[in-house]
Write a structure and sequence with these properties.
single chain; 702 residues; alpha+beta; FAD/NAD(P)-binding domain; D-Amino Acid Oxidase, Chain A, domain 2; 32 strands
């Protein structure tokens, strides 16, 4: 691909130019100065200790690249920055007889895993090999800007690719093979943002060999973050708080970067998973579910079941299935969804973040009323779906909160919110109060019991009526399940289907699971995974934080006005922004799209990020998608904007604007017609109870 605007610049020259311009504006630059540690007082940066003395400051940015990990650990209060270095090789040649011009295009050969560009009239060529060499695992990196040793044997596969792509290169004299360190992160995305543990400590590191490409944008967003308290775009995928301390193990990082570096030139099919650093966090049920055919995915270091392979399926074929088309697990997930609709399924959702907030007085209620948009002053036992908003009304978190007692609350949040949500809560909680915030994620195994027969299973196990009259929707109480007491049972499912969430103290997890599966046999019970969960929630128009919702999305933009109580008597964070938005209107709206002329068997599937067109004009992109087995169509969620045809400026989006448009979703260059909906489509399944046990056992695959 030839990009005429492409350019080649020297990173050293760019850095020098920026430093010179900064100096002219009053910035002091200290060359050859080592930072010994960052000084912190009461969780706030106060200065840095260098080998030339102290410098007082309110903000510190760790952009130390390959030294970022060690520098983070040198603080009085350590900051975890998961980066690890690998050796990176590139070849330099002397100029051609007719030197290459400065506008010679850069060549990237992904199949050959190499890049080639002009260098002083000759060639600079490097690549990202399949077998990278991690370095500095054992301890502190003492290396300055100098080369590591040449390794021609290791570079040989890249050299062979280079000669296949440019045979004339054999005529050039090789000047040297450069070997230098390059840092990588556990997920191939750079690290940006403020530390969750130290205020004023910012990080910009782990550029994964793309520092010059990302530098301008990343620098801008970090500057906005420091000046305004937040960047102008959602950068959650880059946020330091997406990681926890668990991802900073040197052994974990060493193994993970050996997988990450080759992926820079690999084709990544939808829903691929890292193979290294696995089984780091597991539910007590992991071995039992694994023996029953669970195929696993990883989220925030936690193993979660994708689906369960029946005994008659070829495991090896499923593991090697890599496609942008209809996947081999289609029928498996279909049977799990059908069981959720007609009988009962169990999904292990232990990875979800779980906090308990308690106080001796009314402090817990007061702080939660200030931090959350919905009204949490509800009777004991009630559950509230709510958002934790920022000053702009955007979602910092989307969660469910149960009131356990007058002064105690139980909060359930998305898996990858564990660090971010904790930091946000601690930021606003008074240090000298009687408030206690405890992360109890590890204390409870969570089982999602989904389906119309869930009520029968729990009724038998608890000897208590579980019908809506006795156990209404969005209600929570502790009860016995089997021999185990103190099980926190909630009448909610995260999918809109009937059922319950069971929060089980981990010592009871195996017993409760065994009892549920044993009693559930006659009701057609089976295990299900997150792929079924995704299909169910998307066709029910349930938005998820981190996929459909982010820090720039407000409740009014995604149809969640009912989760906002503007008149609850508390001036909660984001209230002013929502009042203004309610008066002026929204400039984007989350919409559900059902594909019409899409052939599930033959056409490429939508996965996420596809462009949305209204009357032929681009209006946004999809945020998540899944096949809706109930609707027998692909379903996409995405935000629709109203751009002025004359100026391109954003305008108010109304329900009438959504409903009057003709829509298409662009999948890999082919546009498919789609119906837009602002509300979920009624289910095609009926939830009638079957009395024929043999018919139910057929659902279980017997």
């Amino acid at each position: 691909m030839h990009v005429p605007e492409d350019a080649v610049v020297s990173s050293a020259d760019v850095a020098l130019a920026l430093a010179s311009a900064a100096s002219q504006n009053g910035v002091q630059v200290y060359d050859r100065t080592s930072i010994l540690h960052v000084m912190v007082k009461k969780g706030q940066v106060t200065g840095v200790e260098t080998d030339k003395g102290q410098i007082q400051c309110q903000y510190f940015v760790n952009c130390a690249g390959q030294w970022a990990y060690e520098l983070g650990l040198s603080n009085e209060e350590p900051v975890s920055i998961p980066v690890h270095a690998c050796e990176h090789f590139y070849l330099l040649t002397r100029p051609w007889e007719t030197p290459l011009q400065s506008n010679t295009p850069t060549v990237v050969d992904a199949d050959g895993r190499i890049y080639i560009r002009n260098w002083q009239g000759g060639i600079l060529s490097g690549g990202f090999e399949k077998n990278p060499k991690p370095i500095f695992t054992e301890g502190k990196n003492q290396l300055e800007i100098q080369n590591l040793q040449e390794d021609w044997d290791h570079f040989e596969p890249l050299l062979s690719s280079l000669l296949r792509r440019m045979p004339e290169l054999e005529r050039l004299e090789i000047l040297k093979l450069v070997n230098c360190p390059e840092t990588f992160t556990p997920d191939m995305r750079c690290i940006l943002g403020e530390s969750p543990s130290v205020r004023g400590y910012f990080v910009l590191a782990g550029m994964n060999s793309a520092g010059l490409s990302f530098g301008g944008g990343a620098g801008r967003y970090l500057a906005e973050w420091m000046v305004h308290g937040y960047p102008s775009e959602s950068v959650w995928e880059l946020d330091l708080k997406r990681f926890g301390a668990l991802q900073s193990s040197r052994t974990f990082l060493r193994h993970r970067v050996m997988e990450v570096m080759p992926l820079l030139y690999d084709l990544k099919v939808p829903r691929w998973d890292f193979q290294t650093g696995r089984q780091l966090r597991t539910s007590p049920l992991y071995d039992r579910l694994d023996a029953q055919g669970a195929r696993w995915m990883e989220k925030h270091g936690f193993e979660r079941p994708k689906y369960f392979v029946p005994p008659d399926k070829d495991l090896l074929a499923l593991e090697q299935s890599k496609t942008f088309y209809k996947p081999d697990w289609f029928e498996i997930v279909e049977s799990e969804v059908k069981c959720c609709k007609e009988a009962v399924c169990v999904i292990d959702m232990s990875s979800f973040t779980k906090f308990e907030i308690t106080s001796t007085g009314d402090q817990a209620l007061e702080i939660l009323q200030y931090l959350f948009s919905n009204d949490l002053d509800v009777p004991v036992g009630h559950i509230v779906h709510t958002g934790m908003l920022n000053e702009s009304g955007g979602y910092e978190n989307d969660c469910s909160i149960a009131r356990l007692s007058k002064r105690s609350f139980f909060m359930i949040s998305p898996t990858d919110q564990q660090v971010h949500c904790w930091a946000w809560l601690k930021k606003y909680m008074p240090e000298d109060s009687n408030l206690i915030l405890e992360d109890v994620t590890w204390k409870y195994t969570a089982l999602n019991l989904i389906g119309p027969r869930a009520v029968d299973v729990l009724s038998e196990l608890s000897y208590a009526p579980m019908t809506p009259d006795h156990f209404p929707s969005l209600f929570c109480k502790e009860m016995s399940v089997g021999y185990a007491n103190g099980i926190r049972v909630m009448s909610m499912t995260h999918t809109g289907e009937p059922g319950f969430m069971l929060y089980i103290p981990i010592e009871y997890a195996l017993h409760v699971y065994n009892e549920v599966m044993s009693v559930g046999q006659k009701y057609g019970i089976r295990n299900a995974g997150y792929y079924a969960l995704r299909s169910l929630r998307i066709e029910k128009f349930f938005a998820f934080w981190g996929q459909d919702l982010n820090t720039l999305t407000t409740p009014l933009e995604c149809g969640r006005e009912s989760r906002v109580k503007l008149d609850k008597g508390v001036d909660f964070i984001g209230r002013a922004a929502l009042l203004e938005q309610k008066q002026n209107g929204v400039y984007k709206r989350l919409t559900m799209f059902i594909l019409d002329d899409h052939d599930t068997d033959l056409d490429l599937w939508p996965w996420w990020g596809e462009p949305i067109y209204r009357n032929g004009q681009y209006v946004g992109k999809t945020t998540s998608s899944a096949y809706g087995y109930t609707l027998e169509r692909h379903v996409c969620l995405g935000f629709v904007h109203n751009f002025s045809e004359d100026t391109g400026e954003a305008q108010v989006v109304t329900a009438d604007f959504i409903n009057r448009g003709e829509y298409e979703i662009d999948i890999a260059g082919h546009r498919f017609q789609a119906k837009a909906k602002l509300y979920p489509v009624p289910s095609l399944f009926t939830h009638k109870r079957r009395k024929d046990d043999m018919e139910l056992s057929d659902l279980h695959g017997k």
